[in-house]
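Lay summary. Proteins are chains of building blocks that fold into shapes, and those shapes determine what they do. In this project we predict the shape from the chain. Here is one chain we studied, written as its sequence of building blocks.
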Amino acid sequence: MIQLTVDRHDPEPAYRQVYLRLRAAILAGELPPGTRLPPTRDLARAAGVARVTIVPAYLTLGAEGFIESPVGAGTHVTAG
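And here is the predicted shape, written in a compact code that computers can read:
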């Protein structure tokens, strides 16, 4: 499971904190291409936030080409 924390005192919105941390991990190679990301509900539970916080982060990463979520195949980090 990905270790993810959200700082509730940070002025940055929670979904943006999630997005930035996942993006940084992908760019640093900590989450290499092909890595399966946890379902949004599982990651939300682990991070202590609502699913509505994780979904927009995943959607933004997907729109930018960092991850893909083919139906029925889970969410994976893309090759580039």
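What the prediction tells us: Strands lie at 36-37, 67-68, 75-77.
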